[in-house]
Design a protein that fits this description.
This protein is of the alpha+beta class. It has helices spanning 9-20, 37-52, 96-112, 138-143, 149-154, 163-169, 196-200, 238-256, 292-313, 332-344, 360-363, 390-408, and strands at residues 56-59, 65-69, 78-82, 120-124, 185-191, 204-210, 212-221, 225-226, 261-263, 267-270, 276-277, 280-289, 316-325, 328-329, 349-354, 369-374. The protein has two domains: 9-211 and 327-408, Aminopeptidase, CATH 3.40.630.10; 214-325, Alpha-Beta Plaits, CATH 3.30.70. The strands form three sheets. Strands 1, 2, 3, 4, 5, 6, 14, 15 and 16 form a nine-stranded mixed sheet that branches. Strands 7, 9, 10, 12 and 13 form a five-stranded antiparallel sheet that branches. The radius of gyration is 22 Å and the shape is elongated. It starts with 8 loop residues before the first helix and ends with a helix. The protein binds (2S)-amino(hydroxy)ethanoic acid and manganese (II) ion (2 copies).
């Protein structure tokens, strides 16, 4: 059933553009931080589309949203979806594509008058990015029971606000419980956010796993002092120590090689003045690898470096783990299904890991899961110039439709 069905590319593009207007940045791109006013407006827009499509809408205590399309039979739904929160310099597609392609698949089935055997569900997971409130994938992690709800609600963001208060501020705290989902299977369409598909000239990715993620926040405390009068031997320079650590991270990941990556993406030093030795530095280190044992080795080398540096520079060190997820393999049968449906539609497809974290890695804890990737032009994402061609978006959404149909029969 539904082999000849195709989604409407223009309708999908129109929704992506409309949603992209919420939180639009002056020079292009989107800023829709989790649980912000822009997130509230984005949720409202998506909920309106869910209602327009006749879906049964619900939300849980973590603010995750669900649009359910009943099937001929009751029972656990086949689920798709993603997130609509973005980083500060987000694009049109990261997360948004997975949600809106899910709605597009539903509308295509509505137009064709097709009711699937199993129910279908489109999910919008809260705070996937983790850019404001760590860890990332927080909403889906709580949804699958991987993080206690109370712990998530008590989490303070980079602005000091609590998740629970921010959920309430945008009236997003739903009534459904979290922690024991009943999902038949989950498949997420997402932009690759890397260069592999484009460099390889392949249209689609059948994602086999998500690499391990390690986020640590370091706070260094030294002694502020006069930049001119303080001999180097008497300095306890928190700013130097932070930047020495950032340099070490680059050297470490270069030495490890393979899939190892490392990023110092946020850094603040105080008092941040030209003629004062910094007494405070707070920064984050994002380490990732597809091989957990190598990731653990990188974490250990970083810890050892910081301990040595603290002794040499005479600074105090506090550290906080913001996120730590092992690599997650996806269900081989689901990866086969994505590959098969891509081939059936005549698209080139390759098996690959995901460099980015995704809600799918959390759903994989409770049901068979995989992902469909489409190329990112220039391999860029978390950048206002993020772009994927309409043709590739359409190809990905059509494969999503066929995978959902195959899973729901
Ligand atoms: O950090 C990530 O990989 C994702 O964008 N949250
Ligand atoms: Mn994403
Ligand atoms: Mn992202």
């Amino acid at each position: 059933m539904g082999d000849s069905l195709t989604i409407s590319g223009p309708r999908l593009m129109a929704r992506l553009q409309t949603l992209g207007e919420i939180g639009a940045l002056p020079g292009g791109g989107v800023c829709r931080l989790a649980l912000s006013e822009e997130d509230r407006q984005g949720r409202e827009r998506v909920l309106a589309w869910m209602h327009d499509l006749g879906l049964e809408v619900s939300s849980d205590a973590m603010g995750n949203l669900f649009g359910l399309r009943p099937g001929l039979e009751a029972g656990p739904p086949v689920m798709t979806g993603s997130h609509i929160d973005t980083v500060r310099t987000g694009g049109l597609y990261d997360g948004n594509l997975g949600v809106l392609a899910g709605l597009e698949a539903i509308e295509t089935l509505n137009d064709a008058g097709i009711t699937t055997r199993r129910p279908l569900c489109v999910a919008v997971f809260t705070n996937e990015e983790g850019a404001r409130f760590a860890p990332d994938m927080m909403g889906s992690l709580v949804y699958v029971g991987g993080m206690p709800l109370e712990e998530a609600l008590a989490t303070r963001g980079i602005d000091g606000e609590r998740v629970g208060d921010c959920l309430d501020a945008i009236d997003a705290r739903g009534s459904d419980p979290v922690g024991a989902p009943d999902v038949h299977a989950f498949v997420e369409l997402h932009v690759e956010q890397g260069p592999v598909l484009e460099e390889t000239g392949v249209t689609l990715g059948a994602v086999e796993k998500v690499q391990g993620i390690s986020w640590t926040e370091f706070t260094f405390t030294g002694t502020s002092n006069h930049a001119g009068t303080t001999p180097m031997r008497l300095r306890h320079d928190a700013g130097y120590a932070a930047m020495a650590t950032a340099t070490f991270v680059r050297e470490l990941v270069t030495r490890i090689g393979g899939d190892q990556v490392g990023t110092v993406g946020s850094l603040e030093i105080a008092p941040n003045l030209v003629n004062v030795v910094a007494n405070h530095a707070r920064f984050t280190v994002d380490l990732r690898n597809t091989v957990n044992q190598q990731l653990a080795m990188a974490e250990q080398e970083l810890a050892d470096f910081v301990a040595r540096l603290a002794g040499q520079e005479g600074i105090q060190v506090e550290r906080r783990t913001l996120a730590r997820f092992d690599p997650v393999p996806f269900d081989p049968a689901m990866v086969d299904l994505v590959e098969k449906q891509a081939h059936a539609l005549g698209h080139s497809v390759m098996r690959m890991p995901s460099g980015a974290g995704h809600d799918a890695q959390m759903l994989a804890r409770v049901c068979p899961t995989s992902m469909i990737f489409v190329p990112s032009v220039g391999g860029i994402s978390h950048n206002i110039h993020e772009f994927t061609s309409p043709e590739d978006l359409e190809a990905g959404a059509n494969v999503l439709l066929q995978v959902l149909l195959a899973l729901s029969e």
